[in-house]
TrEMBL record:
<feature type="domain" description="HTH marR-type">
    <location>
        <begin position="28"/>
        <end position="164"/>
    </location>
</feature>
<protein>
    <submittedName>
        <fullName>DNA-binding MarR family transcriptional regulator</fullName>
    </submittedName>
</protein>
<dbReference type="InterPro" id="IPR000835">
    <property type="entry name" value="HTH_MarR-typ"/>
</dbReference>
<feature type="region of interest" description="Disordered">
    <location>
        <begin position="157"/>
        <end position="187"/>
    </location>
</feature>
<dbReference type="InterPro" id="IPR036388">
    <property type="entry name" value="WH-like_DNA-bd_sf"/>
</dbReference>
<dbReference type="GO" id="GO:0003677">
    <property type="term" value="F:DNA binding"/>
</dbReference>
<dbReference type="InterPro" id="IPR036390">
    <property type="entry name" value="WH_DNA-bd_sf"/>
</dbReference>
<dbReference type="InterPro" id="IPR039422">
    <property type="entry name" value="MarR/SlyA-like"/>
</dbReference>
<keyword id="KW-0238">DNA-binding</keyword>
Length: 187
C-alpha cells in the first residue's frame, strides 16, 4: 500500500491530544487511554530489543523485570500472576520456559506444599545488567516519540493532586521533632 505510513512519525496526531477538552471522556479516562497508547508504543519497540538481548518473549521479560525488583529472594507464583495480571496457568508456562534456559529457579515455599516461589538466577541478573542500557534507551526513545506536552497535560488528569504538587490534605501532618537540650552538670 503506497498510502499507508511506514513510520509512526508519519501517523496523524492522536485526536484526544489535539482536542484535549473537546471529547466525551473525562480527563482521568483520557489520560488513562493516552497512558495505554504510550505503553503500547514502548512494548512494541521493546519486543525486538528484548528478543535480541535476552532471547525471551516480552511476557517472559516482564516476569524477569518483576523479579529483578525484589531486594532478595523471589516471589510466590500467585503474587507474580497477580502483579502482572496474568492467569496462573499462562505464568506457569512462562516460568517453565525461563527455568529451562536457566534464568529463574523454582522452589517450594517452606510450610506450604502448594506454594511455589520463583527467583532470578545469577545468569539472569547478568543478562539484565548487560541489556539494561539498550532497554532503557528503547523505553525513553519510545516515550519521547509518543508523549508530547499535550499528552503530558492529558495524563496529568490521572493524578491531578500529584500534577499540582503535594496536597497537604492528602498527606498526614508530621509531629514536630522533639527538641532535646543537652544535659548540664546542674541537672
Amino acid at each position: 500500500m503506497a498510502d499507508s505510513p511506514e513510520h509512526p512519525a508519519d501517523l496523524p496526531a492522536c485526536p484526544s491530544a489535539q482536542d484535549a477538552g473537546a471529547g466525551l471522556l473525562p480527563p482521568e479516562l483520557r489520560g488513562w487511554m493516552l497512558l495505554l497508547a504510550a505503553t503500547g508504543a514502548v512494548e512494541q519497540r521493546l519486543r525486538s530489543v528484548v528478543k535480541e538481548h535476552l532471547d525471551v518473549s516480552h511476557d517472559e521479560f516482564l516476569v524477569l523485570c518483576l523479579l529483578a525488583e525484589q531486594p532478595q529472594g523471589g516471589l510466590r507464583m500467585t503474587r507474580v500472576a497477580e502483579l502482572l495480571g496474568r492467569p496462573k496457568t499462562r505464568l506457569t508456562y512462562q516460568v517453565a520456559c525461563l527455568q529451562h534456559v536457566g534464568l529463574v529457579t523454582r522452589r517450594s515455599v517452606c510450610g506450604d506444599k502448594r506454594g511455589v516461589e520463583v527467583a532470578l538466577t545469577d545468569k539472569a541478573r547478568t543478562k539484565l545488567q548487560e541489556a539494561s542500557g539498550a532497554l532503557a534507551e528503547t523505553v525513553t526513545g519510545a516515550l519521547a516519540h509518543v508523549i508530547g506536552p499535550e499528552h503530558r497535560a492529558a495524563m496529568s488528569g490521572l493524578i491531578p493532586k500529584a500534577a499540582a504538587g503535594s496536597d497537604p490534605e492528602s498527606t498526614p501532618e508530621r509531629e514536630p521533632e522533639p527538641q532535646y537540650e543537652p544535659a548540664t552538670a546542674s541537672d
